[in-house]
Amino acid sequence: LLYKPVDRVTRSTLVLHDLLKHTPVSHPDHPLLQDALRISQNFLSSINEEITPRRQSMTVKKGEVSLPVL
Length: 70
Hints:
- The protein is mostly helical and 70 residues long.
- The protein has a domain at 1-24 and 32-49.
- Helix content is 69%, strand content 0%.
- Helix 1 packs antiparallel against helix 2 (30-58).
- It is elongated and about 60 Å long.
- GO terms for molecular function: GTPase activator activity; guanyl-nucleotide exchange factor activity.
- It comes from Melospiza melodia (Song sparrow).
- This is BCR protein.
């Protein structure tokens, strides 16, 4: 359930990217679409940067025992 909101942002980012690709530069919404895409990509990047260290700390090699950090 925790991945659903992030998945929604990911899908919205892809839609914004496609919409921007098909919007002429002269259209008044083009700069707004660029801003929305940039904000969405920055948000996803910050989530990825935050999750990556947690995943690495949770990864256990075969044969090792991991104890929870309290």
